[in-house]
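Contributing new complexes? Match this layout with adenosine-5'-triphosphate.
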Amino acid sequence: MSALAKPAAAGPQTVLAARGLVKRYGKVVAIDNADFDLRAGEILAVIGDNGAGKSTMIKAVSGAVRPDAGEIRLDNQPIVFPNPQAARDAGIETVYQQLALSPALSIADNMFLGREIRRAGPAGQYLRMLDKPRMRKVAREKLNDLGLMTIQNIDQPVETLSGGQRQGVAVARAAAFGSKVLILDEPTAALGVKESRKVLDLILEVRSRGLPIVLISHNMPHVFEIADRIHIHRLGRRLCVIDPKSASMSDAVALMTGAKAPETSMLAA
Ligand SMILES: Nc1ncnc2c1ncn2[C@@H]1O[C@H](COP(=O)(O)OP(=O)(O)OP(=O)(O)O)[C@@H](O)[C@H]1O
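Output block (do not edit by hand):
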């Protein structure tokens, strides 16, 4: 019986889980028997020192890296993602720090990049013609829906947007198409205070719609403000999961760096 086949403790449902993930690059062990659990409706922050293996673990659960060993489960079903598209098709959307937006294309075109809506009938089927009015309409609805009203012109090229607005478009796109999980890798790293605020509010808005979020971040105030639980990664694996309401930022840093061992009082349920 695999580790995940054991009945989970009673509590919130786990949407995405991993057990015993391993990924080696030559002699470097990027993740070393890593476990991961994302619960329904939560914001799970993933923190850890540089090189702890956070990105590699997240890439494994989003199809960007094939683990050498371990098991991934989505809605408690074992799953293998041969590539990122397979994870997207399963409802897992990832927004990387280097946003995969096309600067010269409009907001609407970026929202539908790789998922363009074609015109009905032969024009769409054979001539591959796009249904631009529909794409504009849906893009506007999705952005409005998430409170991104500051973007007024959906035809504006993405290169003319501020950093925060670009991040907003990337998050909105992922939230619009991610049906199960949204993974955000350092969404506020390149942003100023005001822009970060907007992106944090957007993440909270996405959570309020029921989509669980994985937030990888080095920004402790942001993590402690919005996370429901904090996964601490150390030396390639999960060290513990702490409760931001009972642990402090200095506890988190001490755990991350190995200055302190986890205490029962800090752990999340
Ligand atoms: N493609 C790769 N080839 C070789 N080594 C890699 C590769 N990807 C990651 N590593 C190594 O694996 C280890 C974990 O890297 P990873 O990027 O997952 O850590 P991280 O916790 O996300 O770090 P950071 O916070 O600095 O982004 C590091 O030692 C890194 O150099």
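Reviewers usually confirm one structural detail per submission. For this one: Residues 46 and 99 are 19 Å apart (CA to CA).
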